[in-house]
Amino acid sequence: MRTRPLKVALLGCGVVGSEVARIMTTDAADLAARIGAPVELAGIAVRRAGRPRPGVPEHLLTTDAEALVNRGDIDVVIEVVGGIEPSKHLILSAFKQGASVVSANKALLAKDGTELHAAAAEAGVDLYYEAAVAGAIPLLRPLRESLAGDRVNRVLGIVNGTTNFILDKMDTTGAGYSEALEEATALGYAEADPTADVEGFDAAAKAAILAGIAFHTKVTAADVYREGLTEVTAADIASAKAMGCVVKLLAICERAADGESVTARVHPAMIPLSHPLASVREAYNAVFVEAEAAGRLMFYGPGAGGAPTASAVLGDLVAVCRNKLAGATGPGDSVYTRLPAKPMDEVVTRYHVSLDVDDRAGVLAQVASVFAEHGVSIDTVRQQGRDGDASLVVVTHRATDAALSATVDKLRALDSVRDVASIMRVEGE
Questions:
Q1: Is the C-alpha dihedral spanning 56, 61, 66, 69 positive or negative?
Q2: Which protein family is named in the record (predicted)?
Q3: Over the stretch 130-148, which tens digit does the pLDDT of each residue have?
């Protein structure tokens, strides 16, 4: 074993960073044995040095991240600060200093991943980011390496623990959205400002990363269609149950049947109880991968939290340190296909449409004719009426988003339709 340690700079010491520092300290001997050389935590960059951080060596703390990254003897930089800047600048600086980088920064990677990979390749160093998607679940490396000889056609997953917790509580306890969010916040699953989670921004960034790796093409967060779950109601949950389904916020990445384009989207959807993702409870994550030769694979586990995410960070740390010792780098960016991202209007899926209508003869025929007019085939219809009011639940066969939108616009113009109460996609067949 080499005796000279590999020096590591840690940027960020919050929930994840403090766990990384703790494990690097307590498991130093094991990490050294696995790597083939000791690793030394050379410094920890924080915003405020005066805050108590139990178990974190105080003498390593600094507020000057720039100086830490550029001191010249750092072998690996671990970035768990998040956000676009100053993280991007610090990572590029690390590359220029010859340091490899391990990051958990999904937002930055979804926006500028191609640029960062190019900078890492030019510097002859590694950029690893297993922790950016699905916490502790080994997912990116299997996609990038284990399935490198296969053709991945679809990635379907629950990649945000906060939203899964909220929808699970709405389903199992009958809680409304606000009540479930309040419980998620109290338990620490939701941030004080939960916008990134509940509006789907977090999941969209992860979907962009997954699609880029799975389909070997450039996909950014801007290419991902996004809907949050704030409009999901107790009535939607009840309708899903009536169909033998459950509602999940899904990240869906697909290669077109002709192989000429890809789609990436995040939105609530009903999935059958028979689908493996339907049983994913609480704040857990799961990702379902469909490949031509391997078939269907499912990856499941805790998708967030200090210790689970730190586990993924340290797995990457071991890998890049081994590469350093071998004088090599691991797999970089693979974007040789250059497939365009198809707009959501052209995406084909099934829909669940709930209508409030007049309870009188001929309404169902009127509604059915509108669906037929726009080429949207109806699979099932459920109608309930009482005292002049009625609800009509229509489940379609597969149709484009554009065709469904045109149908809904025409339905809203009908005198017999009082309201289009909800529209939700149906996935996971």
A1: negative
A2: Belongs to the homoserine dehydrogenase family.
A3: 999 998 999 999 999 999 9
In this structure, what is the dihedral angle of CA atoms 77, 81, 87, 93, given to the nearest 10 degrees? -20
Q: Is the pLDDT of residue 107 over 80?
A: yes
Q: Give me the DSSP letters along 40-58.
A: EEEEEE-S-TTS--TTS-G
Residue 356's pLDDT band, with cuts at 50, 70 and 90, is very high
Inter-residue contact 197 to 229 (CB < 8 Å): no
Question: Shortest CA distance to 341 belongs to which of 240, 425, 259, 261?
Answer: 261
pLDDT mean over 261-275: 97
What are residue 365's phi and psi, to 5 degrees?
-65, -40
Residues noted as catalytic? 206
**What are the helix (H) ranges across 327-357?**
none
Tokens for 409?
Answer: 């616009």
Grouping H, G, I as helix, E, B as strand and the rest as coil, residue 344 is: helix
In order of 238, 241, 352, 391, the CA distances from 378 in angstroms are: 20, 19, 10, 16
Beta-carbon contacts of residue 58 (< 8 Å; ≥ 6 apart): none
| C-alpha Rg value of the chain to the nearest Å | 24
Q: CB under 8 Å, gap of 24 or more: what pairs does 112-119 form?
A: 112/84, 112/88, 113/208, 113/209, 113/212, 113/220, 113/333, 114/218, 114/333, 114/335, 116/88, 116/91, 116/92, 117/332, 117/333, 118/333, 119/92, 119/95
CA distance 268 to 196: 15
261: amino acid identity, one letter: S
Is the entire prediction scored with pTM above 0.90?
A: yes
Torsion of the alpha carbons at 273, 276, 277 and 280, rounded to the nearest 10: 90
Supply angle C-alpha 171, 172, 174, rounded to 5.
70
- Alpha carbon distance 216, 144 (integer Å): 9
Question: In DSSP terms, which residues pair with 339 in a beta bridge?
Answer: none
